[in-house]
Fold this protein.
Amino acid sequence: MSAPERGNEFDLLRSAGMRAGNTGSGGSCPDESVWLEIAAGIADEKLERSSVAHAAECDRCAMALKQAIALMAEPEEADDPMVLAAARKPRFLREAVKPVPEFEPSPKRRWWLGWPAVAAVAAVVAFVALIPVYRLREAEKLMARAEARGRTSEFRFSAAPYASVRDGVRAGKPDSAAGKGSGGSCLENAPASDPRLMAAADAAARAGESVRARLARARVALAQGCLPPDGAGAFEEAAREGPASAASLNDLGAALATMAGLQRDEQMRKQMLESALDAVSRALGTDPRHAAALYNKTLILQRLGRQPEACAALTKFLAVETDASWQAEGKNKTICAP
Amino acid sequence: MDWEAVEAADLFQACVENRDPRAWDEFVRRFGLLIARTVYRSVQRWTAPTQEVVDDLVQNVYLKLCAQDGRALRTFQSLHPGAEFGFLKVLAANAVADHFRTRKARPEGGSTVPLDRAPEPTQEHGGDRELMLREIEEGLDRVTQGATRERDRNVFLLYYRQGFSARAISALPTVGLSCEGVESLLGRLTKGVREYLSAGTSRREAEPS
């Protein structure tokens, strides 16, 4: 349905309004903003009703209302580019309202990711770190127990308690074909199959890569009558790393002298004995009353065929040694001429 | 916070409190085009719009929104759904009108017709004219009845006397009719008044002169 045509008898109404300059039947004209509010649909209903009735008979207000309606109507055409350009965020708002860091709400606090997690991780790390230490101690303990049952080397290591030399050690001969223990060459009748030494070797193998761990592995290998994988490297490193102590130098000498016994080549054996002598001499340079070093020096000189020097060393050893067992073993040596 | 899901009144409050710049971003997203469009159209009433003028006046609208610690936004109360759009349109249109009034400008195609250019009333047939007007008024009174009487009368007068289109009349909330509804109402009123006028003519012709 379309609206009735104008241009008929009702035009009289229009011309009547124009002619009269009518200001409406209902008193003074509302403020212009009232028409905007009516057109925008936010005016009070009562005010709107009376104002529209006024506009129906007031030409000026009707014109204002008509313009307000046109202004508030939805656009029938696409917006002018000018409008689109002006629809951006105003400059002063961009400057006045500074961005704040993005706030990410945490719906549920994960308490277990805090200190408890750190403590748990620290505990795991500490546990893992302590495993080699535990293995090392285990290896040293097993080694000490094995040594207590009988020395597997004639030579004397600094911290080792007294134990008599096992049968067969002195008579042992190098046997590269045997391949027992952790080293390549072992004595023919070496005590490599001693369960304590085997357990010590196993624990030492898993004790990490510290100098002390490698030292333990080398000690176990020597105790088994075998050459350590890196020779006297661990002993040399131990003697080199810390302050030049008589104990570490003596152990290096004991190790070299023990390894010399595993050498089939005479020349090589002699060279190692010379190196061992040098080590124990340096140990005695640090501590002239180091009993173990004096004992080892006696045996090394003896094996080098330097009997008078060996006898002098033995005399010194007997003078300083306070342990009765070691004294007794020293006195049993038939080095000095009667 | 998901600002897109926030009610207009809450969004206005967040903008006033300046809590989060994203609130203003959402405000501009929702109402930026509406404000710019209203400003542009309002400017057209006064002068030919230029980008500079429109930009300045849009900025003016935002300044008014923020003035007095955001009083306009703080005091806004939504009486019905979508009221915020009307509120911002009125605010923008008033901001433009204030701007041009302070410059003592006059709207183009102004709402008033200078008296010297107003059509002179025809003096001829003045008696017939007055009679006709009175009969139209009487016919209108006759065809408008009941609770919608005032509304129907206003619709008739706005259409015939003030030259409103049916669409413009339907835009008035108190009319409460669609464009088609207004057209239908006008058709009914026109027919009724015409019938009354026809009856009056027959009556007059039947009366002895």
Notes: Chain A touches chain B through 68 residues (CB under 8 Å). The longest helix of chain A spans residues 115-148. Confidence is low (pLDDT under 50) at residues 175-184 of chain A.
